[in-house]
């Protein structure tokens, strides 16, 4: 039943009754009662119901019962309250985000853009980067170390045996060849708007993982950092003026959930009083600004991209990002994140703490002393005294 559930939630498959663990047909005794028991077990175990083909087939002269699943349009499927997917030769429990994504896609089939096929080949992928992903996902989520095409298909980065949108965004050698604006721009502006002088900038034209890493590093090196004594360790520890977890969450969400069909970039702008993260795309259908600030089910625009970021722990939980950022900002006595929508762009703002202004006290110099003479015998004026250290 678990294997059938995994097949139903992945890409269909067949279960054989009568094959031993070595793959050899040993056969089973098949009667009408056998059919009824299997049919009843399948019918009673699954929610929603699945309707496989059940038939007898001889393999090497041995009778085997075949349960063949060819149609499963209502994913996710649960068996006895649990749900599984197939990775390689193993059944793995579905994550919360996968369940939410499937539930949403069940009613919104148009949200499959990141699985759309491209005129690409396997040569368009950076296989060293793929190996990095598998190693990291194995460490973080116990994903099997298996970079075969079959496993890549299970991750939904291949469509019709070609790298799809998500595959290129995550592992493409030349991502801009297919998506010229799918990069992140970072800049620091003097003052409170973009008319101020640009003090630093960086265009990050890499895969989605590196975009998040490099954008986060750009922000951290351009904001203030201070040392404070920890209440726990009693040691002086450094901390940034804005919680770095909120910065990373905001950038990761912008990259993961942007609308890649829009010809625009993710923008990270640092001003004197705030950080703004601009992400192309309106709120997903069914989501409102009010719902964002309440407990809600995540609605994923790019489910495959989000799943890969989850597997390497770039993002953790779905539907809790805004609340987490709120909590982290409150810990720093900072205002909650502000979310606005302007046209086809989603903007998240993190306020920076107000930097105390130190009054500038004019420096006082000693008055001229007529009794003091310079090397030419003239009285030393105040400016001469300054130059001579008097």
Summary keywords:
Methyltransferase, Cobalt-precorrin-4 Transmethylase, Domain 2, three-stranded antiparallel beta sheet, 3 domains, 13 helices, 390 residues, alpha+beta, Heat Shock Protein 90, 19 strands
Strand order, sheet with most strands: 11-10-14-15-17-16
Query: How many structural domains can be distinguished in the coordinates?
Result: 3
CATH topology of the largest domain: Heat Shock Protein 90
What radius of gyration results from the CA coordinates?
30 Å
Number of strands: 19
List the uncertain runs.
380-390
The profile of the biggest β sheet is: 6 strands, mixed
Number of helices: 13
Note the overall shape.
elongated
CATH architecture of the largest domain: 2-Layer Sandwich
User: What is the CATH C level class of the largest domain, in words?
Assistant: Alpha Beta
Structural description of this entry:
The protein is of the alpha+beta class and 390 residues long. The chain folds into three domains: 93 residues, Schlafen, AAA domain (Methyltransferase, Cobalt-precorrin-4 Transmethylase, Domain 2); 264 residues, Heat Shock Protein 90, CATH 3.30.565.60; 28 residues, no CATH class. Helices cover 32% and strands 23% of the residues. It has 13 helices and 19 strands. The strands form seven sheets. The chain has a six-stranded mixed sheet, with helices on one face. A three-stranded antiparallel sheet has the order 1-4-3. Strands 2-5 form a two-stranded antiparallel ribbon. A hairpin with a 3-residue loop joins strand 14 and strand 15. Helix 8 packs antiparallel against helix 9 and helix 9 runs antiparallel to helix 12. The C terminus is likely disordered.
